[in-house]
Amino acid sequence: MTIPFTVTLVVTERDEGNFLMTSLLPKIQAELNRIERSYSAFLPTSLVCRYQMGEKDILIDPEFQSIYATVHQAYYQTDHLFDPYYKGVYDPTGYVKGWAVEKIFREILLPLFQKQTVQALCLNGGGDMQLATKDSSDFSWRIGIEHPDNVSQICARLNIKTGAVATSGYSKRGKHIQALENSNIKQVTIIGQGLGLADIYATAGLVANQEKLHYLITKHQLTGLYVTDQGIHYFEQGEIH
């Protein structure tokens, strides 16, 4: 994955925090490398590329099968806006990054809450993040959302203890998504519980026009914001403000 990944720990003892980070990073890197080998759309030996080439028995693999089922379900849940075949061949990339961050967070980071000194955790993959804070802690994550017209400016500030934040837009990767012809949406941010699903809806929202995005927001009770030339539009639990 050609994106940066950042791990943040909030601890009450710096030395233990440094020790934990030293032991965590190799585990996270190893899992990211494994996921890259399996699900890259660019490595000819990956499961995805082999499936594209006709090796259908790869569907027997439980993890591959789970991802395959999720992205196909998302295709129907988003009224075809999230399309794992948008390139003409099966490509779950739009889901795998968020899924990978959420998976690593839950399997490698969350167990650290067993330690009294660990108060909060965050794993950020290219600006999309999964984060959590202990119920007993008053710490809260403060997250700035970059403006799509000027990434040096913040268009919204979020205050979240536990959850996931996914943003899809054109400011970093250009027009990497084929949006509907009459869409004027520049960026969509979804706030949810899990990053995999939040990433799906952020991607679908960027493909949509405002009418279809409003339909998705209402249907799936989404929370977040989107940006157009007319300004910043907020929505919470399906209600558009």
Automatic annotation (TrEMBL):
Transferase among keywords: yes
Cofactor requirements of the protein: Mg(2+)
Presence of keyword Flavoprotein: yes
Catalytic activity: L-threonyl-[protein] + FAD = FMN-L-threonyl-[protein] + AMP + H(+)
Keyword terms: FAD, Flavoprotein, Magnesium, Metal-binding, Transferase
Highest taxon of the lineage: Bacteria
Pfam families named among the record's database cross-references: ApbE (PF02424)
SUPFAM superfamilies, alphabetized: ApbE-like
Enzyme Commission number(s): 2.7.1.180
Xref: InterPro entries: ApbE (IPR024932), ApbE-like_sf (IPR003374)
Record-linked PANTHER family: FAD:PROTEIN FMN TRANSFERASE, THIAMINE BIOSYNTHESIS LIPOPROTEIN APBE
Protein name: FAD:protein FMN transferase
Originating organism: Pseudolactococcus chungangensis CAU 28 = DSM 22330
